[in-house]
Every structure is written in C-alpha cells, then in structure tokens.
Amino acid sequence: MPQLMDFEGRWRLSRRIEDAKTGGTGLFEGVAVFTREGAGLAYEEAGELRLPDGPGMAATRRYTWRPGDGAIDVMFDDGRDFHRIALDQPVVTAFHDCPPDFYEVSYNFTHWPDWRAIWRVTGPRKDYTMISDYRR
Q1: Element counts in the chain: helices (H) and strands (E)
Q2: Distance CA 117, CA 119 (A)
Q3: Phi, psi (5° rounding) for residue 63?
Q4: CA-CA distance, 92 to 74, in Å (whole number)?
Q5: CA atoms of 96 and 98, how far apart (whole Å)
Q6: Could you say which residues of the chain have pLDDT below 70?
C-alpha cells in the first residue's frame, strides 16, 4: 500500500464526469502535483475542463493531505476536514456529508503507482460520477 509521501511529485490526471441528470459527459485533462508542506503534502491540480455544451476552460483545485492514524487525512484548502483515506487495503472508500449533498469516493491502488479515484455525488441538484485516473 502506498504511504503519504509516496504520492509526492507530478502526476498526469485524466478525469471523466458522467452527469446522470443531463446525460452529458465532461472531460478534464491536466496534472496533479503533490508538494511537501510541513508533515504533509499540498495537492494542486490544474488543467482544461471540457463540458458537453461549451468550450474548454481552465480548472484548478487544491487540498492538503496530512498523515493520520494509519490513514491520510484530506483537508480542504481552508483547513476544514474533507475525508480520510485508510491505508489498510488496496481499495478503500471514504465519505463526505455536505447537506444536502453526499459524496462517496472509492480509491483504487491495486495497480500502483497508477491509481484511480471514483466519486459518486448525489443531492437534490447533483447526480454525477467522476472518475479520475492518475499516472506518473
């Protein structure tokens, strides 16, 4: 199983966003960079997002990954808790409840160093699956 510092460095990131409400599919291509920050890692992704009904646009996202007790604690950029990645199995699931929406993520590390995160997001206005593939 990968440990926190094993993620350090630059990753190619490909993402597919399947919207069940509209039937459309968005695509993101870019990079994710994990940079050492204190005892953890700063996560920054940047790339181009293409939605079915418009031109490509720049998209970015930032989180902090910190060491937890046998896990990685993922924090929003402002320091709020997001979710925890357990490090005891090659496929792990985590949750984030943000009423009225609910987020479930499955991390798959079985083909490390390639890995995948699949988000399933549901709520009154949301119903999508986001599949992100990371490669060195």
Answers
A1: 0, 10
A2: 6
A3: -140, 170
A4: 14
A5: 6
A6: none
Residue 30: which CATH number? Answer: 2.40.128.20
3-state secondary structure of 128: strand
Residue 128's pLDDT is: 98
- pTM across the whole model: 0.94
CA distance 37 to 40: 5
Q: In what order do the strands lie in the sheet with 57-68?
A: 81-86, 71-76, 57-68, 40-50, 25-37, 9-19, 127-135, 115-122, 101-108, 91-98
For 5-23, the pLDDT digits (tens) are 999 999 999 999 999 999 9
How is residue 44 written in tokens?
Answer: 């920054």
Overall number of domains in the chain: 1
Contact (CB, 8 A) for 59 and 47: yes
Please, are residues 27 and 60 in contact by the beta-carbon 8 Å criterion?
no
Domain with 80, as residue range(s), is 4-135
